[in-house]
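User: Structure please.
Assistant: Input sequence and predicted structure:
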Amino acid sequence: MQTPLGEKSVTAREVREELHRVMSQNATFDKKAHDALLIGTTYLDTEDGYLVRVDPETNYWKPMISTAQAYASDPTLQLGGYHCYHGTTLYLDGEPSGVVFFISEDARKDAFTEEETMLAELITHLLSGEVEHKHYETELTRRNNLINILNRVLRHNLRNDMNVIRGHVRLMSDQLQDETSGSIALQKIDQFMNLSQKARDLEKIVRNNAECAERNIITLLKSSIADITANFPSASVTLESDEGATVAVLPSFERALYELIENAAKHGGSPPNVRIAVESLPKAVEVRIADNGSGLSEQEQEVLATGAEAPLTHGSGLGLWIVYRILSTHDGDVEVMTTNRGTTVTVSLPCRL
């Protein structure tokens, strides 16, 4: 906008349209904020515009963006020489967190009009959304970096160290001839290493950019059943329906089936009895996995349904997290029904026309 200061050759509506155009452009936060402040200085007939963060406890003002060529680290140090000021409080998460203000050395002849004040408030409102988005991106980047660090430690350091510990525990168990204690220790180590592997698998699933392809559900189930019966020889796993249902899925969908069947075989009755059925519906394919165990806890059902956990109420591992993540990428639904005879997990996968 090239409107000279002090000359209102554009209407308020045109200014608002230009402001929304600026805020919707594909540009950096600094560029958007600077252009928005420039629009404000032009329309309000002021020399400079500032966007500052204010610490409510210390009242310290930290400039974020300004139209001024150069400005001090604390704008409050400059305001003594200015006789024109218009400021609007910026709110983040409902709390006052900054100010958007426009200033000039010379005083205005007339007070700011209601229309000018509304424009300044609109600029502040739009900038508050941009500030929140910028903070969200910064926090997301920080958390992702932390996750990457933890995954790297879990993937390399801890797993390698646990392999060393496992070898020494086995050696000590043989030397002390204490099979019971050695067996318990080795079992816990194996559980930890399995959890570590699932954490790595979950990371790969999250980062996977593969595309959907038509797959036969029965073929996927038979592959998972073969692996699980080999790992749990006492478990009886039967596929009660041999219907050839085909649906578009990601390569990771087979992993979701495996985790659900493995969970049923691992936590089933004595001996575990797992029954699997497939049904083709008009707009979906359903896979039902039933066992004769004591049932999933409410916390584990919550993980399957929403992927949510609380610090004091969480699932026992990452398997159900993997299932939730995979099903959510397929827009699939999961339903859990628990009775005194066992648990039935029903996965509904929409058919993509």
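The longest helix spans residues 114-176.
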